[in-house]
Design a protein that fits this description.
Blueprint (H helix, E strand, L loop, with lengths): L1 H35 L3 H15 L5
Helix pairs in contact: 1-2
């Protein structure tokens, strides 16, 4: 029974972390766009490069 309760707590913690990261995603994109300036091509190139260098990392 205790392991079932621990599993439930872990699941809630993971769900809360996922929700937190999902809520931060739009702010991250906005910050990147602001830092890159108004040129959509430069932003797209820089953002794509950032996604590729961060692939596989969740921290």
């Amino acid at each position: 029974m205790a392991s079932l309760l621990d599993s439930g707590r872990r699941l809630r913690l993971v769900a809360a972390e996922l929700n937190h990261r999902a809520e931060n995603a739009p702010a991250t994109v906005q910050a990147l766009q602001t830092a890159r300036g108004p040129c959509p091509v430069r932003f797209s190139t820089a953002f794509s490069a950032r996604l590729l260098t961060g692939r596989g990392r969740m921290n």
